[in-house]
UniProtKB/TrEMBL annotation:
Entry-linked InterPro entries: CheY-like_superfamily, OmpR/PhoB-type_DNA-bd, Sig_transdc_resp-reg_C-effctor, Sig_transdc_resp-reg_receiver, WalR-like, WH-like_DNA-bd_sf
Keyword set includes DNA-binding: yes
Domain Response regulatory: 5-118
Pfam families membership: Response_reg (PF00072), Trans_reg_C (PF00486)
Highest rank taxon of the organism: Bacteria
Protein name per UniProt: Response regulator
Domain OmpR/PhoB-type: 129-229
DNA-binding region: 129-229
Natural source organism: Pseudonocardia alaniniphila
UniProt xrefs under CDD domains: trans_reg_C
Keywords: DNA-binding, Phosphoprotein
Modified residues (4-aspartylphosphate): D54
Amino acid sequence: MTEHRVLVVDDDLQILRALRINLAAHGYHVLLAPDGAAALRAAADGHPDVVVLDLGLPDMDGVEVIEGLRGWSTVPIIVLSARTGAPETIRALDAGADDYVTKPFGMAELLARLRAAVRRAAVSSVDGEPVVDAGDFRVDLAAKKVVRADGTELHLTPTEWGVLELLVRHRGKLVGQRELLRAVWGPNYGTETNYLRVYLAQLRRKLEPEPSRPKHLITEPGMGYRFEV
């Protein structure tokens, strides 16, 4: 089995030690960083497969770390924070985080979130998937990439791709909120509709000619979403 590299960013040395021991015991190669600057250096030098990030860091806000990583990397980011409430969650997700876990947390849950994040980021080796042409852009399901009509490739995070891929594979059909959450985030999800609002808004900003008047990523209020070409 491939050993996945996890970068853990937290200023609490006890949490760093506990996560290093537990994650290593489950087969992960663990990188540690006690602050934001060290996290950005470790990400650049260590090329982790997933980042577990606390928001309350001594030198910068964790959201700044997310934004710094998103400037050059699509690595999955799981926020692990004592900050609770929808505004904090949405702020982190909107900056580019893929998931949000509140402290205190269960190790089994965190491990499940890590496995889901790694799965989402994995590149499929299956050939023969179609290319869906929406006019303004093309979605290559095999290569897992999106290209504008002018040839410019768009960079999506693993979670953004997960949402788009599911909608594209069911193009023209309604995908329910619960189905979308469980397919992309995992079976323990189903009510976190704020995640969907954030990610659909991000996708519309990247894909739609007029994000406020979407013609490809359609919301069916109270039910779900639909992809139209």
